[in-house]
Input
Amino acid sequence: MPDIEGDKPKRQRFKRYPIGFFHIDIAEVQTAEGKLHLFVAIDRTSKLAVTQLVGKADRKTAWEFLEHLQSMNPYQVHTILTDNGIQLAEQPRNRNTAWSRPMRFDMICEAHGIKHRLTKPNHPWTNGQVERMNRTIKEATVKRFHYDSHEQLREVVPSVRTVLGFE
Output
C-alpha cells in the first residue's frame, strides 16, 4: 500500500520480557495534613503493582521501597527501570567522575542480581507504564475524595490496587 502523507507512524510494541521487569517512579499526593510521596512499581508483563506511601522521598526511602518490592513480590525481580531522580540514581553529571559514589539502591540491585536501567533524562514517557499507574491511582483516590489524614489515604491505596486489578 502506498504511503499517504499524514499517516501516523506505526506504534512500536514493548519488547517482551519475562516476568520480573519493574518500572518504578515516585508521585506526590496531598491530604489535609500535607503531602506524601507514593512509590509505585509495576511489572511490565504481569502488571502486578506494588505501592508504598512515605512522608519523605529520599535515597533511604527509595532503597527501603526496593526491599519492600522484593518482599511483596512472588517472583524474582531481574530488571528495574527508573527515571534519573536523585532518590534513585546518581545524577548524570556526576556519573563516572571523581564525585561519583556508590548508591545503596544500586548496591542492593547488584547484591540481588537486578539490572538497574535508567530512562533518558527529561523523557518521562520512557517510563510510561508506571507514569500511567501513578495517574490511575491518583484519579481513584486524591482527585476523587478528600482525605483528612495521611492514615486515611494509607488505608485506601492498597484496596485501590486490588479494585483496579493490579494485585
Remarks:
- The chain has one domain: 21-144+157-163.
